[in-house]
Amino acid sequence: LDCLRRISKGKADFAVFTPEDLVTAANSEIEVLITNELRYTENDYEYEVVAVVTDSSGIKNRHDLRDKRFCHPGYGQESEWTRILSNYLEASIIPQSCETKYTITENRIKASSQFFKSACKAGPWVHNPKLDQKLKLKYPNLCELCDYPSRCQNTDKYWGRRGSLMCLTDGAGDVSWARLDDVRIHFGLVPGGAESTPDGYSFLCPDGTVKPINSTNPCIWVVKPWPVIATKRTVAQDIQEFMSTLNNVDSTSWQGAMLSLIEIFHLSIYKLEPIEPIESYLERATGFLNANSFTGCHPPRTIRICTTSNIENAKCSWLRESAAVYGIEPDLDCLKADNTTHCMEALNNNAADVVMVPVDLIAPAMKKYNLQPLFYETVNDNEKYLTVAVTKTGSNVKKLEELRGRKACFPSFDGVAWNSVIHTLHEKKLLTSCPFDSGVAQFFGPSCVPGLPRNYSRSLKKNCGGNYSGDFGALRCLLDGSGDVAFLSKNAIADFVKSPIENKFGNIKLDSFNIVCEDKSEGCHFSWAPLGQAMVRNNSSELWMQDTLDVFLQMDSLFGKNYKSLTTPLQLFGPFNGQSNILFHDN
C-alpha cells in the first residue's frame, strides 16, 4: 500500500498489487489503471471457489443446507484463503447474528453452529489460543466431523484445501467448500492424483440449482483475481507494452532482473485489453466485491483508535481499509487529537477507545485517566526500555548510595525512570521520609524532573533551565552540567550519539558516558519496560476487550513481523511514508 500511495502522489509509475490491495485502493478513491495480470496458469482467475454436495444428501438449493454436515477448509492458511473468501458461503446463506452478549466472532460461530448439524472447521478460530479452545468447547458440533474432534487443529486430516474434499468423499459430510482446481484434481477430472470418482457428487449453485461435477460450465460462488500491474493513467500504455516484453527474456539481462522483482511464480504476463480502472476490473470477478461488502452489525461495534498526528492518522486509515479487506472485525475508525494526553482524555470521556501510550505515560494513564493495558509491543531484549543511571565519563560514582546530594536529571515525572528510581531507593532503604516523592527530594540535590506538579519540592525542578524533557532531554541536562546523573533508557544513549540534531558536531561519543553498575552479573538496569502499550478504559467489558484484542492479533498475523504471505500489504511495524515509529514502533 506504500506503493499505492507513491503512485497516487506521482512518486512512482507502477507496482504489483493483490486483488485485496485493489479493493483498498477503490475504497480510498485512489485512481490507478490495471494494465497486466501476473498469471502462473492459463485460467482467468487465480482460483474459483465452489460448493460440492453429495447427491444422497438431497441438497438441491441453498435452503437445503440447514441441518446438514459441513466440510470447511479451516483456518490458518491466510496466504491461500483470506477469511473473507473462507467464510463467503456462510456469510451468504446464514442469517447474521448480532447479540450484544457475544463478540462479533462468537456471533458468527454461534450462527454457524445453529445452522449446520455438524462441521469440521479445524485451525484457529481466533488468534488467542485460550479463547480459541474455549469457543471450540462451547460449540463442539463445528469440530464434530474432524478426524480428531477434540483437537480440531490445522494438523487434522480434514483441514486445508484438499482436507474439506476428503471430509466429503470419506462420507463425513454433505457439503464441501473448496477451490475448483482442487475439485478437478480430487475427482480425477484432470491429472494429479484422484481420490474419488465424480459419481454421486454435484456442484451447488448460487442460483438455487445443481450441476454435475463433470460439467464443463461449473457454477462459481466467488473468485480471487490474479495479482496485477497497476499504474497511473499518464503512463499506462507505455507500462503495458514494456511489461508485455518481459515474457521471454534472458534471466541474466536487466529485463530478467526486473521480472524476478515483480514475479515469484512466473508463467506469463497477461496483457489486459483494454486497460481498465479498478472498479470495472473487480466487477467482472464473480462474488469478489460482494465478499467485501457484507453488512455488519447494527449498531456497529467500531473500534475508535486515537492518533496524535496527521501521519499517524494516515497510517491508521490505511490500516482500517486493509483490515476490512481481509475480513477483520469489528471495523476500525481513526480519530486525531493533538497529543497523547488529549487522547487519554478522549478515552476517559468515551470519545475514543484505544490509544498507544509511550512508556513514560503509562503510570499517568492508569492513575489520572483510568486506563488499563490491552496489550504491549514485544521487542527483543536489547530494544526494551532499560532504566539505567548515567554519569559523564570521569565520574567517581560506583554505587547508587553515592548519588546522595548529587544533581539528578529525569525524563519526566511519574515515568518509568522516575518510578523505577523511587522503587530502587526504597528497596535499598535510602529514602528517609514519606511520601517517597519527598524522600527523593531529600536524597538528591537540586535536580530536574520535567512535568513535576506545583505542590512538589522546588529543589526537584530547580535545575530545569533548558529543554530537558524526555530521554534526550535528560542527557542534555547531564551534558549541560545541570545534573550529575541522568536516569533514562539505556538504548537512548546510542540514539542520542547518532542523532545529527543532538550531536551535530559529532564530538559526543558513547564513551562520553558511564553507566553506574554495582553488580554486572545481575545487569546494570533498575527495571525494564516495553516501548509502548495499547490502553483502553478501565471499565471496558471483558467481551469488548476480547473483540478488540483479537482485531489487533489478526492485524499482527497479517501485517506484522511474521506475516504468512509473500509480501504484506502494509507494515504494522515499519516505516510509513519514510518516517519511523508511526503508531507502532518499528522494532
TrEMBL record:
Keywords: Disulfide bond, Iron, Metal-binding, Repeat. One of its GO terms (molecular function) is metal ion binding. Residues 1-286, 303-587 form the Transferrin-like domain. GO terms for biological process: protein targeting to ER. Coiled coil: none annotated. CDD domains: PBP2_transferrin. InterPro entries: Transferrin, Transferrin-like_dom. Disulfide bonds join C71-C167, C120-C146, C205-C219, C306-C343, C316-C334, C409-C477, C517-C524. Hydrogencarbonate binds at A417. Gene3D superfamilies: Periplasmic binding protein-like II (3.40.190.10). Fe(3+) binds at Y47, Y385. Pfam families: Transferrin (PF00405). One of its GO terms (cellular component) is signal recognition particle receptor complex. This is Transferrin. It comes from Asbolus verrucosus (Desert ironclad beetle). The lineage of its organism: Eukaryota, Metazoa, Ecdysozoa, Arthropoda, Hexapoda.
